[in-house]
Design a protein that fits this description.
By secondary structure, the protein is of the alpha+beta class. It contains 16 helices and 10 strands. A hairpin with a 2-residue loop joins β7 and β8. The relative contact order is 0.15.
């Protein structure tokens, strides 16, 4: 027994010695210093791409080239377009300024193993590239996450992935931008031309807002009686979503525009669940049944930080609407901060085809309200926090504008995976902002020294958890 104990102790000492040797070697490789924030950001970006999308550059090489010959490979062109948003440059001109610095170009090539072309070269290619090429790349990246079960912990009832549907404006002009522009004339007679896009984004409670599919709201070419709208675009988006993710269990959440018979039929035909905002006055026959039938009731009360939250939940089941079985639920929420004691109240009403019970009503109501993620972490972030969604990256070429939009969605996807990881959170200590961290990364790529430690980072096997 004693010999066995001594042998066990010896093995522990040998393991400890090996771990110590590895730490010392790692310290020597990094010069014994802790990387600054800019350098740490570069390492986080490298780890994120290598961990989640190790075949990203290979996928770029497999896309169909629209040119006969060029000095740059298509993978270099498209990666530069994505990097424009990865580094949150805000405009092609700003990224070209970075490119003029020799050190930035060198660090870029070290990081991606690709050369960095001028953004005018990128623009010429995006003006010709078929728009489905980058859409297919985005789809491949999302399917990679689904196959790795990266987002499975956020499934509703351990089954459905929640997908929000909403539209946003991308560009507006005082003159006609193209034949398919939407347009609106004010009371003063001034006409504004603009482009809108309808998005299906996978959303989660911790803040993911990942584009699954995009459908442009555009007028038909030639003469038409009525402009394209969000509901018409949804029919096309639903077909696209079903074709690309045929077996994905989806629960759609959307605003008050969507409770209508056509939406219910699409969800039934495609086997999708839904939770949609239900406004007063919409679908009068449904409201009649809600008022006529006795509602189930439940109250919940909990403390969140310094705020007391009270929820009065009511629901009515098995409402018939043209053959569709609907459930109505309402949450009357009262928030009372303990410091002031002044209460504020809000009312949230939804329709769903999911089974609503005392055990599920609160979760379904929260999931319906999760729709705001596509507005806040989705469109608002892309407009105001580094991606410049409404910037005119292509003033003339409509084809290029659509391809820039897809590059933005891919860049935002990668950055979300980095920002929401637990390894990134220490960089946000105190009052540190993401915007400052991206500025620090840009400064490091311009003036810092990228050590050989980057190679060892790429070779490491890591486990990524999310906040």
């Amino acid at each position: 027994m004693k010999k066995r104990s001594n042998a066990h102790l010896q093995r522990r000492q040998q393991r400890k010695a090996r771990h110590t040797a590895r730490r010392q070697a790692k310290r020597r490789s990094t010069g014994g210093s802790t990387p600054n924030r800019g350098e740490a950001m570069v390492y986080e970006l490298q780890k994120t791409i290598q961990h989640f999308f190790p075949d990203l550059f290979e996928q770029l090489r497999q896309l169909e080239d629209c040119r006969r010959k060029s000095d740059y490979a298509l993978s270099e062109i498209l990666m530069a377009g994505i990097a424009l948003f990865l580094f949150q440059q805000g405009s092609r001109h700003a990224f070209n300024n970075q490119r003029q610095e020799a050190k930035f170009k060198k660090h870029y090539q070290t990081l991606f193993k690709l050369r960095l072309p001028h953004l005018d070269t990128v623009h010429r290619v995006l003006s010709r590239l078929a728009e489905d090429q980058l859409e297919q790349l985005k789809q491949h990246l999302v399917k990679t996450l689904l196959e790795k079960k990266v987002l499975h912990q956020y499934r509703l009832f351990k089954r459905y992935l929640v997908v929000a549907i909403d539209a946003t404006g991308v560009m507006s002009f005082t003159e006609k931008h193209g034949e398919q522009c939407l347009h609106q004339t004010s009371k003063t007679g001034q006409t504004t031309y603009f482009h809108n896009v309808l998005e299906a984004k996978l959303i989660t409670p911790n803040g993911f807002s990942i584009s699954l599919a995009s459908e442009w709201i555009v007028n038909p070419e030639g003469e038409y009686e009525k402009q394209d709208g969000e509901r018409k675009a949804f029919v096309r988006l639903a077909v696209q979503l079903k074709q690309r993710y045929p077996r994905l269990p989806i629960c759609l959440t959307a605003d008050g525009l969507y409770p209508y018979q056509g939406f219910f039929e699409i969800c039934r035909d495609y086997g999708w669940a839904f939770i949609v905002t239900f406004k007063d006055g919409n679908l009068p026959s449904v409201w009649e049944e809600v008022h006529a039938l006795a509602a189930h009731q439940r109250c919940e009360r909990r403390r969140q930080g310094q705020t007391m939250i009270e929820q009065a939940l009511r629901w009515v089941t098995d409402i018939d609407y043209h053959g569709h079985r609907l459930q109505w639920l309402q949450c009357q929420e009262t928030l009372t901060p303990t410091e002031t004691g002044e209460s504020t109240s809000s009312r949230f009403v939804h329709l769903t085809n999911l089974a609503v019970t005392a055990a599920t009503v609160a979760l379904i109501s929260r999931t319906g309200r999760l729709r705001w993620t596509i507005e806040n972490e989705g469109f608002n972030t892309q407009q105001h926090h580094g991606y410049a969604l409404k910037h005119k990256y292509a003033r003339v070429s409509w084809q290029a504008a659509k391809n820039y939009y897809q590059c933005l969605q891919i860049g935002h996807l990668i950055n979300q995976l980095m920002i929401l990881s637990t390894t990134f959170q220490p960089l946000l200590q105190g009052k540190m902002t993401c915007r400052h961290l991206w500025q620090a990364m840009a400064a490091f790529l311009l003036y810092g020294h990228l050590s050989h430690h980057l190679e060892s980072v790429a070779a490491q096997r890591i486990q990524v958890r999310f906040t």
